[in-house]
Design a protein that fits this description.
Elements: H1 3-16, H2 37-43, H3 48-55, H4 64-73, H5 78-87, H6 95-99, H7 104-111, E1 118-122, E2 127-130, H8 132-138, H9 151-157, H10 170-188, H11 193-204, H12 206-212, E3 224-229, E4 233-243, E5 249-255, H13 261-272
Helix pairs in contact: 2-3, 4-5, 10-11, 11-12
GO molecular function, one term: DNA binding
InterPro entries: Cro/C1-type_HTH (IPR001387), Lambda_DNA-bd_dom_sf (IPR010982), MLTR_LBD (IPR041413)
Protein name: XRE family transcriptional regulator
């Protein structure tokens, strides 16, 4: 681990970012250029003291999880992220870990969406990052591990996952998720994590096995959908998806027409926050 180079790199990248680059308000006049240390620490979900020690060349060797969080907080490119890992004394991320690194271009768009639910998904249906309104609508997902990080896997193994969709729309959602997974399986191959997930789901879900045999392939999301919130009831939203060039990640933006009942519910969701809704069912 090269503490001096790690400290210099972190400090330089922090100074190159402005609050609006990461979805923060500029606030009062700032005495220093770039982000504050406490802002980077908050974005990376670590203590300010921990991050400060890294910049002061006296911190411990960060874990791979910490480095991934820092790379996301500092909006690093793939090359910059790999460099961060190397100077921290870690191997560059594996292809599987690289796929979970949020595309900076999508993240920049997400940073500017504060008045409507928006989130970034991997091609396996894993929530990589979401804004406050998306978490309020869907609930948090950071506590999931393994295959359960994928909404596709949870849809076929956890009945609570389906509660956010009206009962009459769940068959369509099942087919859509299987078609999305088949598209990922086709691009990643049978020996990839997608292949492992398919084999696990075929063992665990008769419904998945039946739908898998239909050989439907699609990489898209329903343009218009109805979501069911446990407190606010049904919310009609339009769904727009923006994909990365390699189709491995998608930014989903949910909107409602101005002055509509759904728009009012989304505004109410923003006022109430997400704390009382964090146990809500998940689904896209």
């Amino acid at each position: 681990m090269d503490r001096a180079e790690l400290a210099a790199f972190l400090r330089r990248r922090r100074e190159q970012l402005q609050p609006e680059d990461v979805g923060l308000l500029p606030g009062a006049r700032r005495r220093t250029t770039g982000l504050r240390r406490e802002e980077v620490a908050s974005l990376a979900a670590m203590s300010t003291d921990y991050y400060t020690r890294l910049e002061q060349k006296r911190g411990p060797q960060p874990s791979e999880q910490m480095l991934a969080a820092l790379a996301r907080a500092l909006r690093l490119s793939d090359d910059e992220r790999n460099y961060l890992f190397v100077v921290a004394g870690r191997n560059a991320p594996s292809p599987a870990a690289t796929a979970a690194h949020v595309a900076p271009a999508l993240l920049r768009v997400l940073d500017r969406l504060s008045d409507t639910p928006a989130l970034i998904l991997s091609n396996l249906g894993e929530v990589l990052v979401q804004n406050r309104l998306a978490e309020a609508l869907y609930g948090g997902s950071s506590h999931y591990t393994g295959f359960a990080r994928s909404e596709i896997y949870r849809w076929f193994t956890d009945p609570a996952q389906r509660l956010i969709y009206p009962e009459h729309d769940r068959d369509r959602q099942s087919r859509a998720l299987v078609a999305n997974l088949r598209a990922a399986h086709g691009s990643m191959g049978p020996h990839s994590r997608a292949g492992e997930m398919v084999r696990a789901l075929r063992r665990e879900s008769a419904e998945f096995s039946r739908l898998w045999e239909r050989h439907e392939v699609a990489k898209r999301f329903e343009d218009h959908k109805v979501l069911v919130h446990p407190q606010l009831g049904e919310i009609e939203v339009d769904c727009q998806a923006l994909f990365t060039e390699d189709q491995s990640q998608a930014l989903l933006v949910l909107t409602a027409p101005p002055r509509s009942a759904a728009s009012e519910k989304l505004q109410l969701l923003g006022v109430l926050g997400h704390e009382q809704f964090k146990d809500a069912g998940q689904g896209r």
